Each structure stands twice: as C-alpha cells, then as structure tokens.
Amino acid sequence: MAEQSVKAIRAKLERYYTYVDKKVDLTIVLPSILTSINTTPVARTGFTPNEAARIENAGKIFRLKYGNFLKTLSKIRNKFPAKTPVRVAIPDKNVFLKKSKPGFSAEIFYVTTLRNTMPPTYVIEDSNGDRLRGYFREDHLIDVGE
Fold first, then answer.
1. Using an 8 Å Cβ cutoff, are 145 and 84 in contact?
2. How many CB atoms lie within 10 A of CB 51?
3. pLDDT tens for each residue of 26-44
C-alpha cells in the first residue's frame, strides 16, 4: 500500500517537472500533488483516499476487498476430521536426482484441528500426543485409513 502511494507521488512529480516547470521548489508543488491524489477515485474501490479514510465507508471497502474471500472461507470443508490417521508428504530436496524415494512419511500422525485458512491447513500430532510444529495443507497429507 505504501509502495503504491510513493509510486503515485513520484509519477506525478516526474510528470510535473517534465511538462510544467523544472525550476519550481518541491515544497510548493507537493501540496497540490497530494491534494490531487487524495481527491482522485481509486479504480478498485470507487472511493477517493479521503472517502476511504472515513469510518462510515470502512464496511463497504472491507466487503469490496474481502467479500469473495470471506464467502470461500466459510465454505471450507473438513477433509480430515479430528483423530484421522495421516501420513505427511516428504519434500524432495533434489528434484533432478534419479532415484526412488518415498513420497510420504513412514510414521503415522493424527489430525487434531482444522484451521480456517485459505488453503485449509491442519494441526497434527504424533502417536505420543506431541504436536508437530507448523501447519499442514490438505495436499501434503494422505489418509491412512486404519
């Protein structure tokens, strides 16, 4: 967000100095450039930055930005219910090496909870009940089916 603002200010300054006057002091030009940026509607939201800063528009902007994501997040299905035995994918460190390696762990782990993230992630534990560090995506787990 900040990078976009800096980019917009820089582009306006370059245009001003290129087409208007190269000898004008920056402190004289900058307030008018900032006013023009703050009163120009943003294409994605339809609001100007000044309008977007108002508390009464916060809900509208939130729905514009995150509406589809929240709908998708509410529809996450639980592929692995709690206590499901699973194996974890082993990442291949050397993709170009020609030898066969197992794709999943020999040890069986158990799913404890589903995290409402996009993509869905799971918390798993080993047979002793010790939680593994990190979170695991569906495509990195395989159901053992015991």
1. no
2. 17
3. 788 888 888 888 888 888 7
